């Protein structure tokens, strides 16, 4: 069963689609040109630009590559402060043999 995105996730997807469209327009590329270079249909590109939840992430990556923005994907979750804190807590609370009186 397909689950609907939360409103905050919908806003993020909308912003991503708009940013991709603006990047395409700044480069003076038509939707046909980008779609052809990305190896996707024009309709798929339009779905990406209009926040269609059913578009696979790989298609986003192809479009970003055509626009020269694919390296920006590497920034996602790079500075995962919450994840690092959780990892630190997990590592400091790990049971050790000494904790149980085992030597």
- Largest β sheet strand count, sense and barrel closure: none
What spatial form do the alpha-carbon principal axes imply? elongated
What pattern of helices and strands is seen along the backbone?
HHHHH
Strand content: under 5%
CATH topology of the domain at 7-76: 434 Repressor (Amino-terminal Domain)
Tell me how many strands there are.
Answer: 0
How many H/I helical runs? 5
Q: Average pLDDT value?
A: 88
Descriptive overview:
The chain is an all-alpha fold. The chain has a domain at 7-76: Orthogonal Bundle (434 Repressor (Amino-terminal Domain)). It contains five helices and no strands. It has helices spanning 7-26, 31-38, 42-49, 57-66, 81-92. Helix 2 packs across helix 3 and helix 2 packs across helix 4. The longest helix has 20 residues, at 7-26. The model has no long low-confidence stretch (mean pLDDT 88). This is Helix-turn-helix domain-containing protein.
